Amino acid sequence: MPKSKLSAEKLAQNFADLHPAYAPQEARIEAARCLYCWDAPCTRACPTGIDVPTFIRQILEKNSGGAAETILSENILGGSCARACPTEVLCEGACVDRTLEKAPVEIGRLQRFATDYAAKRKLQFFEPGPESGFTVVVVGSGPAGLACAHELRRLGHGVRVLEASDVPGGLNTTGISPYKISTEFALSEVEQASAIGFEIELNSPVTGADLRELLEQNDAVFLGVGLGQTAPLNIPGEDAAGVWEALDFIEQAHRMPLKECEVGTQVVVIGGGNTAVDVATEAVRLGADQTTIAYRRSREQMPAFAYEVELAVSDQIGFEWCVQPVEFVAEAGRLVAVRFRRQRLEGEGRAGTLVDAGGDDLVLPCDQAIKALGQLPRSDFLSSIDGLKIDGGRVVIDDKTRATSVAGLFAGGDCISRGGEIVDAVQDGKIAARGIDHTLRQKPKEPR
Amino acid sequence: MKKPDLATDFCGIRSPNPFWLASGPPTNSAYQVRRAFEAGWGGVVWKTLAHDPVVNVSARYGAVDYHGRKMMGLNNIELISDRSLEENLREITEIKQEFPDRAMIVSLMVESKKETWQDIVQRTEDAGCDGLELNFGCPHGMSERGMGAAVGQVPEYTEMITGWVTEVAKTPVLVKLTPNVADPRPIGQAARRAGAAGLSLINTINSIMGVDLETLHPMPHVGGRGSHGGYCGPAVKPIALNMLQQVAADPAIDLPISGIGGIESWQDAAEFLLLGATSVQVCTAAMHHGFRIVEPMISGLQMWMLEHEFESLSDVQGRVVPDVGGWGELDLAYKVVAEIDQDQCIHCGLCYIACEDGAHQSIHCAKIETDAFLAQHPNGAGAVHQSGGKNYLPGAGAGYVNLLTIDQTTCVGCNLCSLVCPVEDCISMVERDSGLPSMTWNEYQEKLGRGEVDPIAPPEHR
Prior knowledge:
The structure holds 2 protein chains of 2 kinds. Chain A contains 19 helices and 16 strands. Chain A is of the alpha/beta class. Chain A has 3 domains: about 15-120, Fumarate Reductase Iron-sulfur Protein, Chain B, domain 2 (Orthogonal Bundle); about 135-230 and about 375-440, FAD/NAD(P)-binding domain; about 245-370, 3-Layer(bba) Sandwich (FAD/NAD(P)-binding domain). Chain A starts with 7 loop residues before the first helix and ends in a 6-residue tail after the last helix. The mean pLDDT of chain A is about 95. The longest helix of chain B is centred in the N-terminal third of the chain and has 14 residues, at about 85-100. Chain B starts with 7 loop residues before the first strand and ends in a 13-residue tail after the last helix. The mean pLDDT of chain B is about 95. Classes of the chains: A alpha/beta, B alpha/beta. The interface of A and B includes residues 35, 96, 303 and 305 of A.
């Protein structure tokens, strides 16, 4: 696979912030648009319940530090969420200015303005609570794990975080396009969060057996392990050189200089979700000549958010609808094309079934095909945990506490949702920490 | 389209329209006044003259901004003209000859000596002005030297000095009133007794603009030290309108009034005219936006007059003065209540929280499931947007919409909800029969005393 042919300068330009940071006056002008709603729809639409009108008013009153505290007290990854949240369907989707002015207040950018202010100054708003004497192990340092660990420290519990990878932060660090969240920012946010007093032990994967031991030796364990590999298509040629998984493609841009990143000349992205769009736009920005998103259903049924699709269109990405991949065509072990069978929908909407539409197959010549088909659950690991209930690949939890079927074991993030937003994972971690706290404080303290 | 005539006759001072520039920084020189007349202003009041030019300081102005909108209010510690009297008078002659159809009024302020006043009056009239305006109003600087507001706050001083002036003046004399008094009427009456032909009001209001929270300097400051200054701009308009109406309604005054105080649009001007002004004077708006703002003011006033079939300014001037009076003359039986147009409501909740915490707890807030809401309010569906194959409704969150309704049985008709509502025409105040006979507070007191009516029960509160 060739490396990016673009100049370092052009790459830097392509990977600059998608939504540039506000200058202080710009932020205040935007903040002045906020109506300061009561029981604000934006706050209600935020999974972590950030008090949006309050933090915007604090920006308006030139109290950016206070605004950051308002945000981070509900969402310790408020900086990442400001950059990567699908605000269109969350806070900004609910903003009443959408009706009044046909344009919502740019809440995401305002949130970034405030959190950047605090991050630059390394402001620490939160103190650990009085030591409870309990110890909790958090497995996984992604958004769910980080939020859980942070909240547990605020509540006074001892926390160890175990991370399988050699970098902390989970998908937040390596799984989101760098023009949304840069590696440096993701890592700095991890540092800010852990400054409340917990260590992240890297290169520390956990097996089912390890987990049993951790449960015995600690007061509780939080499982924030996310998901595993991309689902395979199980079609011929899938092991040809040039067939990639979406997360590997995104991760390379976080792991090495953009100039070193590999990208095809003609790239086909298979899938219709937000990850597919992310991968496709990243391919274009790395210098692919032609990038096409191929999705087996229709445009209307694409799960990608409207603004993501608009981004893809503005990046001049091509689309093929209603096509089912049937073969990765390889020559001498190298990918040269993807063959698709045309599909037709029978029945209404997403409930409808796809059937072969007949006619000639579509053959898209390409030297790189990227599968963005969603990740599979970590089934082997989860099923090795005695007594853990799983349903459809999701760890079953109690809604109020995020407790699993195993005593002392709590869970949150993608392993309970099979793929959600950062903000959902943060809320899971927060709720689980409070669930753990509630459970621990009810049980008599045993000397260990 | 025949546009209404805006020609103004202010006790003999004629101008093609009622828009005059008030005495202040914009009327400091021939250069500025020429530009103003070219832009269309009907008249000017030349910046206050004295025999000896004053010395000014820097900085001079401070402003109040409101959430990004600049200069809601402005204050200044600038004094009167700091140019020589001879130069000013020469320029006045020159401009009056260039623009004979415009009103040229000159503001004056000198020390309180008869000869001094009479000397400057004669010299100014010799320059060719159409009228004089006596500055008894500036609250800052000059008042410490016994001039400006120091005169205008005492009816006897006002009467004495105005008398010196009218004794020799051949042109109409206007007295400019200060708002820094409990009641402007005794001053207006004093001016009238001394032979003033007209009044202008208000001058600026005593003020400190604020404190710079970084440097802790008062604002504006001169090397870290501040002084009270004169407050003006849009924020002072309601204060000016009240004083204008008070003076206009006083039969013991009965003089034409040039209205001043925060006028920046034709609407402001129309309100001043309706509440008793014969002409209006503008300063802050010209300082903010330049002389060009007179054009939309003229055009707006004419279009409004056309719409209301007012043929000339005399149809407008003073029209609303009789409709303002004491609280005791208000009808206790008159009743309005709020009504929310649910098709317009954007569910911001601002009316609810204002009524709940700041008024009379008469707005109900019901959480309606989003789908149920859309079924009941098909117009609301127009706001729905789609993304990723799902629908989103602005104003909804956590699965519900706050449906806001007025409890008209407890609503006291205070207006607050309609004032905070960000959507035009969403909350209206509608008249309701209170079931009471028409009766003012004064009548009520009399009837209560005679035992003809029962006491009115207090409203119910939660």
